[in-house]
Amino acid sequence: MKIKPLYFLLFLALAFSACKKTAEFRLAQDLGPTSVDTTYTSDRDKNLTLVYFIPADLDTLAGWHKRLSDVFIYGQSYFGNNMQARGYGYKTYGLLKDDSLNLVKIVVIKGNLPKESYPYQGGVGNVVLEVNAYKTAHPAEFTSQHMLVIMPAHKYSADGNPGGVPFYGYGKWAFLLDYPDLNINYMGVNTPQARRAVGWIAANFHEMAHALNVPHGSGKVSDVTNPALGYSLMGNGMRKFIDNQSFLTEADCAILNVNEVFQANNSISYYQPVTASIRRIVARYDALSGNIEVGGRFQSSVNVANVIYYLDPNVGNEGTGTNNDYNAVTWRSEVIGQDSFKVSLPINELFYTGNYAYELKVKLVHQNGAVSPSIYYFDFVNDVPNINLRYEYEKTGWSIIAQSSQESSYPASNIIDGKINTYWRSKYSSGTPAVLPHSFRGDMVAARSIKGVSFLQRADGQKPVKDFEIQFSNSASTGFVSAGAFVAADKPGYQYFDLSLPVTARYFRLVVTSNRDGTNDSAIGEFGLY
Prior knowledge:
15% of the residues lie in helices and 33% in strands. Strands 21, 23, 24, 25, 26 and 28 form a six-stranded antiparallel sheet that branches. The chain has a five-stranded mixed sheet with strand order 4-1-5-9-8. Strands 15-14-17-18-19 form a five-stranded antiparallel sheet, with helices on one face. It has three domains: 149 residues, no CATH class; 114 residues, Immunoglobulin-like, CATH 2.60.40.3760; 131 residues, Jelly Rolls (Sandwich). The two termini are 37 Å apart.
């Protein structure tokens, strides 16, 4: 779920109320409800579904159908032009339209409950139940998995900003709002009323992009100084939309390029489950070029169209996650061969260096629209990236051949699956819980020359390991010799431990001897060798 925090609404209110007071702009025509017969068609079979959801005690707002049609037809051009600028050709989302009347099909659903039953906080559940019930009864009106639910605003702040309804992305849905001034004819008009209206159109497009699978993300420093670009729509570009300085990043467009409603035809099944992981990665800072150089290899059950990258700072201890990544600067690269990637990330394109913790997010954008993310942690120290991800051995074919303890839902094989969100956990749920030490034996398929160990705590930070030992042998069951004992920090991200001397062996044995919380209950996210 993607939910925009309340501070965004306050930001809009402050931004628009700060405009210099001038005479209010009025539209020349009064756009009343549409009462003509319509014939809706599309050049594709998968289209973005628009729903106008009206609480039982409200009605549609004046001119709603024409105003909203104009907005989303304009949005088609905005998205299409951005896709073309990023090298994908003029691709945009499909809509069912009557071209002769310039109207878009909008499914109108009358709610069963009064407006107070669908508030900003907690109102989504009731809307979803009723929309899904309508969808079950009228399946032909919903041609794709992507849906916009538009609701008429019924509360207004002192400075005229609308509200009172849910307003955020929600999986492949987005909750948007309508109010009488939501009119594309305000574009280019420099009055407080017009800037407020266009700001809400931009905010609707921002949430719509979430429903089209696009996360938050920022442009680069060079984008801000480019008058043809400016600010990312998925970052803070909503406030620059009226000045034509709001754009979609190359990462945004890479995701949209494989969205089902952006395709002229749907020859594949979109968003089917994908098995994918980064098998090798290296990331180092090159002081001479001023770049973070990233490269690696992946494996995937579905073809990868592009690889995208996010450098996400933790500014002011804002933390990580969906609503803390507006300032994540983004890049895109092509796939090299069938399974490799490489990119240079100049640090002079970042807005924050200094002393900040960072996430490097590497996302595989699959041809079927799915996106597989991997997250790596590093920091800046005095404006210099402290990053040195190691080039580990690929773990394809590796297996855990024995373990002292595991929960059936969190098996030991999870520590070598290349996925940061899966983990092993010692037995705790039934019978006699396992006690330390916990151990695993693994087979690397062939003998390797080992110089060090990579270690990842469980992604959510729970049950962190403290002390562990690594042993090696060329026999699957005997002859294991210790190559070192290490202390794992209680922190996110990969940790690296160099061996005192290189070892050549096929089999490893990992032994956990203590936990950070002093219990016997342990967990490990990932383990590797280099």
